[in-house]
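Input record, target 12 of the design panel.
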């Protein structure tokens, strides 16, 4: 049996005071029998998460990592530093990084490699824009994005988490339907199976306007192993409702 993995991506939100309140509510409400939980916070707050969450069963991590190992790279945060703050996860290739910071497939792949080398689990985001979808290019785009990472990480491929996040669904209130999401997840699952004999270890999360109302249906899909939640992770009640909606399932592959 495997529990769904529900990851909150706080994006550029939070303050020490607001975080403390949210973390206390999450710790009080988290039921480890329902799901696995993790929070990806802005880097300045990782030590606060470490202090608050150690021993709680809730994991934490960052939203980006440098492609460099260390040294004279002003403003960058290395994978080793994230580990040093107790992080388990790091998001790489979020569409907001690809869109606003020009991150290429190759750069994302290098970041995933750096994360794995430092003992972090990269959450590799892939997803098509609305014009991609309308042009029938969804499968081509997500496979190209994942392929770069698979190629770079080689035999460590089964250690990554993949997050399918259709760009048009992020922060819009317009989630992909369960059928649309499942169809893309099945494509990604097949790609992982072709790359590694241990693809059953890979989790594929859905992200894009997942909330308390639509989570149960999305998380019931056979290839949706959890969620990457933006807006709804900023309130304890909505984030915990998503965790509570997560079915515990038999391994599908
Ligand atoms: O990383 C999270 C995603 O970008 C989803 O954000 P959202 O739940 O606010 O749509």
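The sequence produced for target 12 reads:
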């Amino acid at each position: 049996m495997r529990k769904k993995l529900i990851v909150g991506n706080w994006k550029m939100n939070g303050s020490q005071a607001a975080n403390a309140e949210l973390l206390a509510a999450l710790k009080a409400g988290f039921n480890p029998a329902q799901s696995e939980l993790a929070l990806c916070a802005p880097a300045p707050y990782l030590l606060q998460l470490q202090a608050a969450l150690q021993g709680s069963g809730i994991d934490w991590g960052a939203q980006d990592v440098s492609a460099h190992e260390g040294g004279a790279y002003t403003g960058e945060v290395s994978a080793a530093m994230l580990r040093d703050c107790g992080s388990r996860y790091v998001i790489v290739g979020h569409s907001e990084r690809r869109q606003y910071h020009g991150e290429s497939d190759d750069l994302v792949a290098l970041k995933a490699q750096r994360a794995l080398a430092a003992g972090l689990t990269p959450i590799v985001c892939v997803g098509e824009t609305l014009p991609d979808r309308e042009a029938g290019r969804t499968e081509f785009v997500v496979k190209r994005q994942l392929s770069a990472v698979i190629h770079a990480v080689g035999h460590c491929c089964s250690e990554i988490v993949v997050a399918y996040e259709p760009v048009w669904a992020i922060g819009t209130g317009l989630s992909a339907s369960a059928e649309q999401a499942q169809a893309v997840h099945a494509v990604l699952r097949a790609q992982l199976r072709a790359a590694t004999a241990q693809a059953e270890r890979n989790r594929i999360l859905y992200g894009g306007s997942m909330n308390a109302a639509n989570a149960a249906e999305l998380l019931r899909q056979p290839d949706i192993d959890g969620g990457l939640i933006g807006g709804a992770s900023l309130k304890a009640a909505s984030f915990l409702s998503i965790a509570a909606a997560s079915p515990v399932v038999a391994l599908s592959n």
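The chain has one domain: 4-244.
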